[in-house]
Write a structure and sequence with these properties.
The structure holds 2 protein chains of 2 kinds. Chain A is mainly beta. Chain A is 0% helix and 50% strand. In chain A, the strands form 2 sheets. In chain A, strands 2, 4, 5, 6, 9, 10 and 11 form a 7-stranded mixed β-sheet that branches. Chain B is an all-beta fold. At the A-B interface, strand 5 and strand 10 of A face strand 5 and strand 10 of B.
Chain lengths: 107, 116
Amino acid sequence: DIQMTQSPSSVSASVGDRVTITCRASQGISTWLAWYQQKPGKAPELLIYAASTLRNGVPSRFSGSGSGTDFTLTISSLQPEDFATYYCQQANSFPRTFGQGTKLEIK
Amino acid sequence: QVQLQESGPGLVKPSETLSLTCTVSGGSFSPYYWSWIRQPAGKGLEWIGQIYTSGTTNYNPSLKSRVTMSVDTSKNQFSLTLSSLTAADTAVYYCASLFRGAFDMWGQGTVVTVSS
């Protein structure tokens, strides 16, 4: 199985801050990577697929980059509704695997 | 817009079999891939498996011996059965659609508790 490791596990930030979350795959996955946002009690929501393609309707303050084994999710200017847990997921091979999550908290 | 809705029992006894169904509405059901994912309380996401509308499946090897997925295109539904349940199977179970390897639409999730 491909292991997905996110860092940090949690981060505190303020509205307006720029935040970057990193996801590392245990082996190369090209650009077969997706990012999700999950709020308490809700299903995850897809933000980005193919490492850098923003899903329709997702605000442009979200961006993704990377290929191979190292990927980043950047939120350029945090909004109150962005405080949530974020997961990466690889779609290069079976079984599909997720990172352990990064909890973004208000400072 | 496609909507997914899970249905099934909320409480199942240890050693028994769980059966869940996901009903898809508001969009095309075929030909697409559909998936099941679960999340224990306070923990991360675990992919269970996926099924194509032709019936082709891929399962997580960690669950493969206990998982079966099926599809009913006449009802726009796909299903999950998980046998030999233990407390470790207690989780929120989600169904989801697939787009370029990503899970783009999700059901609201159904809580399954394994307890006697």
